[in-house]
């Protein structure tokens, strides 16, 4: 298996958009989740035709105007940097639709994809409607923005969430996994992490490992890197002095987030 760590591409494409990351079934072991991160200079329009995939367009920074030919959302986006920690705007677009995104300012968008065969309405997910969640305690505290959680019926298979973790804390911790299609005990969800750190010279440690250690990769993750989680536990540790951000995309056979903690570390929750 190739490394689960992916560095930025910085690849110009024909639309003048700069492709920073592209993860899909052709360049990873993922079968459900695909992902693109794109920088758009002001005035540039990015167009895409979706086949049998749904897509959540997360306005990471800047402002964009979205249209699918029927629905238009003008000048959406709430922040100039992710570390403003404001929930941002996103748009859910279903399978077999064509969409355009025009950059009203310099903008960065994340395109989060998963399989979809039942076309659903295009939906604006307003940052103002996202209630920040303070999760964890002690040195496991993090701030969570549930952009497209499993209790939001707008999507068929896609889950999207962003997480902020302050220095000296861990997130996705105690280590948990969701890699067994065995509801109600556990769901099988592949996952991607798009990471940033503030200040940007920072790094975090992320380990991805299975009970039998057939997969056990510990990575130093730098600003702008991605980590692919095909299976296994996937904790993140944040060194003092830095704030960690990551955007998660999850998808699998069923759109349910039901995880289990590593039994060796579950005691931490009650400590
Ligand atoms: O499974 C979900 C992802 O690992 C993260 O979103 C994680 O849940 C974030 C956290 O709880 O710290």
TrEMBL record:
GO terms for molecular function: 5-deoxy-D-glucuronate isomerase activity; glucuronate isomerase activity. GO terms for biological process: inositol catabolic process. InterPro entries: Deoxy-glucuronate_isom_IolB, IolB_Bacilli, KduI/IolB_isomerase, RmlC-like_jellyroll, RmlC_Cupin_sf. Pathway: Polyol metabolism; myo-inositol degradation into acetyl-CoA; acetyl-CoA from myo-inositol: step 4/7. It is an enzyme of class 5 (isomerase). SUPFAM superfamilies: RmlC-like cupins. Its EC number is 5.3.1.30. The keyword Cytoplasm does not apply. It catalyses: 5-deoxy-D-glucuronate = 5-dehydro-2-deoxy-D-gluconate. Keywords: Isomerase. Involved in the isomerization of 5-deoxy-glucuronate (5DG) to 5-dehydro-2-deoxy-D-gluconate (DKG or 2-deoxy-5-keto-D-gluconate). Belongs to the isomerase IolB family. This is 5-deoxy-glucuronate isomerase. It comes from Salipaludibacillus neizhouensis. The gene is iolB.
